[in-house]
Amino acid sequence: MSPTISQAFPDGVVSIRACLESLAEPDYKAFNAKLVPTIDPATMIGIRVPQLRALAKRLRRGDSRILDEFLADLPHRWFEESMLHAILIGDVYPSIEQTIAALSRFLPYADNWAVTDTIRVPRLSDDDARVWLDQLARWIRDDHAYTVRYAVVALMTDFLGDRFDAEQLRLVGGIRSDDYYVNMARAWYFATALAKQWDDALPLLEQRSLDPWTHNKTIQKACESYRIPAARKTLLRSLRIPQRSQRA
């Protein structure tokens, strides 16, 4: 059984890395390595996310110098260091501009879906939302696959509700990528859009505006959703592109 956070990071201990290494669970490492297959298992310690969140909470209450040094130390050695960084980054900066600057330093080192999908920014004011949307549009055009994935997931999280605009659908639809994790994020985004913004999202499928793989994966994920009524799922299934057409 791994130690508790208070045991692993007692008062006076200044090494976050040593704390993380003391929390290692070999069995969980083997399990987690299967979930994030793009990562070399040798770079994993094996720490559950609730443990990382508990450590992040403790760090936010502690010596800011330790926290600042950790966030500046890029690239990280361990996968779990990057996960801890991802948890912290949305909580420690007082303005959206500082958060964007911190993310701009961090995202080029992101190399897996688990890290990018863990990042969340705080609740946005209307002014912050405009700044944030402009930045996401820039990241969506980035050459780095996981920066693009992060931007798509953030757009889904932050802008498919009251701040939705149909132009955002076209922004994600305009991405051209062969990367599996980018296109999975796009399918996830469009499936969520079908659940929340059906009238605006459906025409993209009816007009076959997406590449065939993302088109069909969107339909699959939407049909797996409990938020979409059965009648709409029947319509979506009728819009699938035959496999032979996907290869054309």
Automatic annotation (TrEMBL):
Short name of one Pfam family: DNA_alkylation
Top-level taxon: Bacteria
InterPro entries linked to this entry: ARM-type_fold (IPR016024), DNA_alkylation (IPR014825)
Identification of the protein by name: DNA alkylation repair protein
